[in-house]
Amino acid sequence: MAALLRWLLVRRLLRERPRLLLTVLGVALGVSVFVAIRLASRSALASFGDTVEAVTGRANLQVVATADGFDERLYATIRRTAGVEAAAPVVEVNALAHAGPPRAGVRVAEAVDQDPVEFDETLMVLGLDPFAEAPFARLAESEDALDRTAALELLARPGSIAITRTLAKRHALEVGDTMTVLASGVACPLRIVALLGSEALQEAMGGNVVLADLATVQEVFAREGRLDRVDLIVAPQELDRVRGALAAALPEGARPERPAARTKQVENLVRAFSLNLLALSFIAIFVSTFLIFNAVALAVVRQRRDIGVLRALGLTRRQVVTLFLCEGLLLGAFGGLLGAVLGAVGANLALQQVGRTLSSLYLVAQATRLWLDPVTLFTGFAIGVGSALVSALAPALEASTTPPGATLREGARIEARAPRYGRIGVVGLVVLALAGLVSWWTIAAREPLGGFVAAFLVLAGFSLVAPVWTLAAERLVSPIARRFGIAATLGARAVRENAARASVVIAAVMVAVGMLVALTVMVGSFRLTVDTWITQSIRGDLYVDPAGHRASMRGTALPEALVEGARRLPGVAALDTYRATMLTYHDARVAAVGVDFDVQRRFGRLRFLNGEDSRDVLARALTSGGVIVTESFAHH
User: Fold this and answer.
1) Which in 105, 314, 360, 389 has the greatest CB count within 10 A?
2) Which has the closest alpha carbon to 274: 452, 454, 504, 110?
3) Residue 342 C-beta-side C-alpha neighbours within 13 Å
4) 182 φ, ψ (degrees, to nearest 5)
5) pTM over 0.85
6) End-to-end CA distance of the chain
């Protein structure tokens, strides 16, 4: 068998290097898309997990806010709970910043909207109590030693901060220098009093972690009297008991949970984003299977006489199948290996873009390092090999079942045993009908995964219908082709005689064009949805928001005097205030938005599923203290 492989397989592949290279590259591209998307997404989530671990220090339990913070007076109750060995209050805010003092003569609006380079860093600012930090080692010069001088400096000097050595090195900053952050649209200078030595913090959010006294962060970011969480150290054997005691004692705005639960919430939040990218990568692999099928089928046709001779000399059908499956295996192995390498390179290039998207949509910390997950690399390689074997199986079986006499006759082709295109077309129609049923079930059950299954069934169904469509198209085109001479006539006839292989090419092009159209329609639908939402909910003629609010979110607030002053301006018919925050609802992160229902009732154009007039709904919500939820939230 080894000699047979060298004669019929290896020598031929070496003679046909261009075709071999193109086929391997096609498989590699499909695998690389899967690997790149998977690695980039996992690296972004891994970066967030590392950031969570770093900023929680040695805490193994937390009391976290389920809404916009909780009353800081709860800290005393939490600290006195039996079994709590150490407790540290924390306020956590993201903020835009730049190195150095505020730029003289540059307005913040200009700096953010017209010259983004002015605020070129997004920092995670942690407000801590230096007196409570010793057990958590976040202010440590090393993992075991607390820098007491830094702690006292943070406490004694309002507006002072400690930054990581990574951030300091990036901007050539030293102790005594200044960093400027955006807080509620105001440029606030903060003085550096210490450099953090913790190795974990150097990696967290790419080193963009800033520590400050609790009161400083509360004052600068309009968080007076509020805490985002309290980090706890509890004996491992007491964790469940302490957690239960805290759950019973705490109000609705706070709850105890393990630090890892935060990472899990973010994973759930970005699941749809990752699933969409993963589905697109599988479509790329699906297209690559057509390339393998066509390559092996072409090899069978070109070697039909050799197959006939060897079959007549005693070569078994199993050996013929093994021969061509080995070709598929080689193509898949080379393609899978190259795809894993290209995927890793692509993931490294795409990491910043994927991380930026996750950060913008879901407030996930920016990823700065690629995590080469061996499982993902092996999975990509295995998908390349598996898809190649599956796609090579049909032409291998066809070659093995062709009688030796038919292959020895001059001019006979492997397609002389005409496939049963009608049956294949019927199977394709059945698959398309099944796709319709899955789509119906997906809409009824509101299960997102069903949509991807239905999309795959649609691709498979139309691929199976492709041979029938090819023959039907050939019959329609043949009369026209005769008018253009013998070359066109022979071309149309070749399509009919080689319908099996021609339909594979047509199916590959069909899938590629179909996905292009589908993605274009999907993006257009998203844009239309956003446009409809904006038309319904945003009716103002002028908008005022603090610069940097996208980074700081709940750490941003407009001065009350500004709001009241705008309300009294001549010509202002109404003023609608807006406040947004993230809530934890049934272990999921949801956005809660506060608006003026009376203004929305008079000027808004909200549409409701039952068709009821928005003025009646909003009036009822005003009198009853109710809330309005989106359609997607209602189904959760």
Assistant:
1) 389
2) 452
3) 18
4) -95, 120
5) no
6) 59
